């Protein structure tokens, strides 16, 4: 029996956002619609917020969402204080009553991410949290007893990265360059490990729970050896992380530099994609102007016709391993925290 706990955590500070009614954020999708079809604009990050940060300065925004972000949550997700309180209690009771999963946490800050992902539909949020824990149980090799600090090779090979800045809509961007990955050097399992680490870190941000994220797949340099690694099981795992088993919305997937090899890989994925998800995939080839219709160049790396620098993957891990709250969160879900890091954090907390 799970012991009932009613915890409520509060954040501090608000990010500054503004409404921009000149240009819709076209990477935002909901119910199969692009923003070009949706007259409701999203709040856009105030340029001053991102521009104050160096492109290699890492931080997670753990503060409470600003009024502008919460207005978007009310309008698009149906989140109000009454709905939030009622849905949290209903979800918590449903978890106890059904007993289909044993969450490591039952506090509001943890459960709210599942409700936001499912627009406060309690039944769907419950199924998502069940899927989340089932996925962990079925694939312990990609998140249990994993030391995030040992995943530096993913960054050194420039296989994946997460820029320090967001899109103009306030969404995080994950970039994969699969052509840089040598399957002979390490397995696709390593990429899954690195992906789950980033997702677990990203979903700690309340506004990321509300806005979701965007994924760029740069397929320049992929070969048939990459295609051979994409089995139906791998495709199913990718879809689980992006759609069915993780509380982070994938609002758009942008495919760059695709070739005939991609067609081979996509044929494995397509049976797992419903119509709604297929509408969230955009193909750009080498046409960066096409990509810029969705994400402003001011929010993209220079190699994609943007103006910004990039952040190596390992710098995320190195920097965030110095934040006590983040380390504690990661430790709770099974990640290994080296003794020296834990000791340093404990000493800092005592001071």
UniProtKB/TrEMBL annotation:
Record's Gene Ontology CC terms?
membrane
Query: Which residue intervals make up region (Disordered)?
Result: 1-52
Q: Which InterPro entries match?
A: CRAL-TRIO_dom, CRAL-TRIO_dom_sf, CRAL/TRIO_N_dom, CRAL/TRIO_N_dom_sf
User: Residue limits of the CRAL-TRIO domain?
Assistant: 170-312
Q: Where is the composition biased (Basic and acidic residues)?
A: 16-43
Top-level taxonomic group: Eukaryota
Supply the Pfam families for this chain. CRAL_TRIO (PF00650)
One Gene Ontology MF term: phosphatidylinositol bisphosphate binding
Full protein name: Alpha-tocopherol transfer protein-like isoform X1
Q: Which gene encodes it?
A: LOC108626089
């Amino acid at each position: 029996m799970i012991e009932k706990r009613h915890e409520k955590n509060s954040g501090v500070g608000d990010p500054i956002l503004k409404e921009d009614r000149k240009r819709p954020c076209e990477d935002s999708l909901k119910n199969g619609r692009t923003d070009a079809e949706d007259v409701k604009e999203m709040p856009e990050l105030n340029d001053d917020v991102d521009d104050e940060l160096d492109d290699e300065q890492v931080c997670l925004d753990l503060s409470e969402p600003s009024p502008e972000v919460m207005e978007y949550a009310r309008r698009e997700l149906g989140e109000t204080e009454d709905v939030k309180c009622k849905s949290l209690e209903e979800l918590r009771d449903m978890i106890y009553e059904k007993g289909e999963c044993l969450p490591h946490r039952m506090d509001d800050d943890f459960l709210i991410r599942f409700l936001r992902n499912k627009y406060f539909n309690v039944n769907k949020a419950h199924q998502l949290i069940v899927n989340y824990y089932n996925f962990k149980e079925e694939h312990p090799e990609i998140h249990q007893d994993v030391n995030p600090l040992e995943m530096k090779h993913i960054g050194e090979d420039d296989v994946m990265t997460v820029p320090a800045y967001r899109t103009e809509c306030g969404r995080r961007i994950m970039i994969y360059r699969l052509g840089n990955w040598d399957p002979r050097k390490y397995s696709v399992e390593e990429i899954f490990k690195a992906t789950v680490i980033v997702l677990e870190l990203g979903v700690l941000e309340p506004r990321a729970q509300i806005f979701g994220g965007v994924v760029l797949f740069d397929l320049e340099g992929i070969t048939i050896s990459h295609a051979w690694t994409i089995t139906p099981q791998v495709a199913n795992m990718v879809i689980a992380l992006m759609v069915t088993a993780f509380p982070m919305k994938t609002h758009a997937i942008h495919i760059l530099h695709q070739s005939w090899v991609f067609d081979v890989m996509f044929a494995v994925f397509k049976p797992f994609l419903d119509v709604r998800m297929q509408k969230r995939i955009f193909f750009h080839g080498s046409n960066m102007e096409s990509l810029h219709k969705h994400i402003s160049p001011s929010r993209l790396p220079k190699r994609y016709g943007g103006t910004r620098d990039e952040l190596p993957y390992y710098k995320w891990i190195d920097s965030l391993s110095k934040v006590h709250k983040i380390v504690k969160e990661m430790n709770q879900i099974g990640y290994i925290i080296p003794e020296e890091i834990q000791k340093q954090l404990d000493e800092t907390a005592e001071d």
